[in-house]
Write a structure and sequence with these properties.
The complex is a heterodimer of chains A (300) and B (333).
Chain A lengths: L6 H9 L8 H4 L3 H15 L1 H4 L37 H37 L1 H16 L2 H12 L3 H28 L2 H8 L4 H37 L11 H8 L9 H28 L1 H4 L2
Chain B lengths: L4 E13 L6 E13 L3 E5 L6 H9 L6 E10 L2 E2 L5 H7 L4 E4 L13 H5 L1 H7 L3 H14 L5 H4 L9 H13 L5 E5 L7 H18 L2 E6 L2 H7 L2 E6 L2 E7 H6 L4 H8 L39 H5 L5 E4 L2 E3 L15
Parallel strand pairs in B: 3-8, 3-9, 6-7, 7-8
Antiparallel strand pairs in B: 1-2, 1-4, 4-5, 9-10, 10-12, 11-12
Helix pairs in contact in B: 5-7, 7-8
């Protein structure tokens, strides 16, 4: 008995929309990265409550204890202790605070300077544009990390200085992107209508330009968060970042690097893992936001 | 309808100068026009004839390369060319308003309708947000938007194209300007909405005693809307006067040719006439009359000498040697 195959069964595989496997994180909300970021933020906020020990005080009697699952480790020091006997877990918990505070404020500083200069340069044009853009070119020609070290060497390391330095180093990316946006906005009819209606340049920049570039600035901020955190860690690693004994992740890696050869791996791997997780999460969130907020990519 | 003179342009010239100063484009050249309060002036001409530059000159919103090289621009007894940038900014939107070529894109997608309609009122009259908002509701009502109280807090994407147009019209009249310049406001619209919009502008003009300048290349709109007509060619006004007089008896061959290229219901199946050739390069104008190379009734004199403006009737003039015999005695020379 022959059964005529219904046409649907042959057509169905062809018209079925391909499951977004490779791009799942671009389509859907990046739940895991956001949870990680929220977790780190909460840890940073409640560091005082969560940390089992004071992160700055150690005891030479219990140096280089390994994590609890290794031989010689104990449940008292879950992730072991460092070269002066400080609890690694407590230091990681307090280090989250440094990374979060420095990362977010530095991005805000960079975003503030860059957005302001980008709008001025793009909207006013003429000599203002020339000055800002040549300054940006010069800035981009400087190697960012070396420049940051140079600045840190001049003003001396402190948390506030690190924030300002990172802001000063990274504003150029905002300025470039925002200027480009402003140039295209300037040609839009509603901006021209505002000009024709007699609005002053200040009103137009504030009311018509700024709200329309905020999206790009936010996307850029999330993408920059990773860069800034890595730079902060690098500066701390190089000894010009957040001054000891404050527990910054980069600083912890620097302190632990000598121990790596003799098997004290947890001193570098643990803070390294934290940096990686935070930067990766920030970048995944940034990617998703970019697609979500960028009208040109939204259709994809 | 004509009251006292509201705007008069006297020998106004705007040139674009290249960066090295070697190329000069005479986009607007020796234009003299007058417009009475409450009157409608249509400015027609093909693309590149200087219509938009003329409008931007009147608003003093020219790009940096353009310079107003000579002339006077009297508006309500003041010379707009003598005003500072700041004074001029206070004129724009308040006393002279403008509707742009693409009203569909003229609204900021991020702000509510009320916010945008009220913007000129806040900028120019320093009105409080509350009164400005109430004015916005009234303005929406006056451009016949149904249920303005709810519409006022909606956003541009929630409006149809025709509504957005009328909202742009409302922004134009928000500060009760004396003059409204509409630069091809209907080119991006389909015909039915075009007709509605023109009717609306017409009504607004009557209600508010506005003077209107209509920049277009659509002679049908001129016939429907305008009292006065100025025909531009290569930066110059080649013929101007009352619309009915020009439509019935055009003097300049260019006007004749333009009118001859409109299809009419009455004439049966005749071919439409086209104007041969290309408009001249404004940086490289011929010595004589700019239209001479394309003119069907060109004379030897036209190629050697540019004609001055001959006043052929009161309130009417033409830049053509053919008009010389018709010229009123006082103006010839």
């Amino acid at each position: 008995m022959t059964v005529i195959t219904p046409p649907e069964t042959t057509i169905a595989p062809a018209i079925r929309t391909p499951r977004p496997t490779a791009f799942w994180r671009l389509k859907g909300f990046p739940l895991i990265p956001v949870l990680i970021l929220v977790f780190i933020a909460l840890v940073a906020i409640f560091a005082d409550v969560l940390a089992p020990y004071d992160p700055t005080i150690g005891s030479l009697a219990r140096r280089f204890r390994p994590p609890f699952w290794q031989e010689g480790g104990s449940m008292a020091y879950l992730l072991g202790t460092d070269h002066v006997g400080r609890d690694v877990l407590s230091r990681l918990i307090y280090g989250a605070r440094v990374s979060m505070v420095v990362g977010i404020t530095a991005v805000l500083v960079a975003g503030g300077i860059g957005t302001l200069l980008g709008i001025l340069s793009g909207y006013l044009g003429g000599w203002a544009d020339q000055v800002v853009m040549r300054l940006t070119d010069t800035w981009l020609a400087l190697p960012a990390l070396t420049f940051a070290i140079f600045l840190a060497a001049i003003v001396g390391p402190s948390e506030l200085n690190i924030i300002l330095i990172l802001g000063l180093v990274y504003w150029t990316r905002y300025a470039r992107v925002i200027r480009g946006e402003v140039l295209s906005l300037k040609q839009r009819e509603f901006v021209r209508l505002a000009i024709v209606a007699g609005c002053s340049s200040r009103t137009i920049m504030w009311r018509h330009i700024l709200p329309n570039v905020i999206n790009s600035a936010v996307v850029l901020a999330t993408l920059m968060l990773g860069v800034v955190i890595v730079t902060e860690a690098s500066l701390s690693f190089l000894g010009v970042g957040v001054p000891p004994p404050k527990p910054a992740w980069g600083l912890m890696m620097a302190d632990g690097k000598k121990g790596l050869l003799v098997g004290y791996w947890w001193l570098t791997v643990m803070p390294g893992l934290c940096i990686m997780l935070m930067v990766l999460s920030a970048n995944l969130l940034g990617d998703w936001l970019r697609v979500k907020l960028d009208p040109q990519l939204r259709q994809l | 309808m004509a009251g006292q003179t509201l705007l008069s342009l006297e020998h106004l010239s705007t040139h674009y100068v290249s960066q090295q100063g070697t190329r000069v484009v005479r986009a607007v050249d020796d234009v003299t026009l007058a417009l009475g309060a409450g009157e409608t002036l249509g400015i027609v001409g093909e693309s590149g004839s200087g219509k938009t530059t003329l409008a931007l000159t009147m608003m003093r919103l020219l790009p940096p390369a353009a310079h107003i090289v000579s002339g006077r621009m009297m508006f309500e007894g003041e010379d707009l060319l003598k005003k500072s940038d700041e004074e001029m900014r206070r004129v724009r939107g308040k006393r002279i308003a403008m509707i742009l070529q693409d009203p569909m894109a003229s609204l900021n997608p991020l702000f509510s309708i009320g916010n945008q309609v009220a913007e000129p009122i806040r900028v120019h009259e320093g009105a409080s947000p509350r009164t400005a908002w109430q004015r916005a509701v009234q303005l929406l009502k006056s451009v016949r938007i149904a249920s303005p109280e709810t519409r006022v807090s909606q956003f541009p994407h929630e409006m149809s194209g025709g509504m957005r147009q009328r909202i742009v019209g409302a922004i134009g009249i928000s500060c009760e300007p004396r003059l409204l310049i509409a630069d091809e406001p209907t080119t991006s619209l389909d015909l039915t909405i075009q007709a509605q919009y023109l009717n609306l502008l017409r009504d607004l003009q009557r209600e508010h005693g506005l003077a209107l300048i209509f920049i277009t290349h659509n002679l049908g709109i001129v016939a429907k809307m305008c009292d006065q007509l100025a025909v531009m060619y290569a930066g110059r006004v080649v013929e101007q006067g009352p619309v009915s007089r020009i439509f019935n008896a055009p003097t300049h061959p260019y006007t004749k040719a333009l009118l001859g290229s409109i299809p009419r219901m009455t004439d049966g199946g005749e071919r439409l006439t086209a104007i041969e050739g290309q408009p001249p390069d404004l940086a490289n104008l011929p010595v004589g009359c700019a239209f001479a190379p394309r003119c069907p009734s060109v004379m030897t004199r036209c190629r050697a000498e540019a004609p001055p403006e001959f006043k052929t009737e009161p309130g009417r003039s033409a830049r053509c040697w053919l008009a010389e015999p018709l010229a009123l005695r006082s103006s010839a020379a």
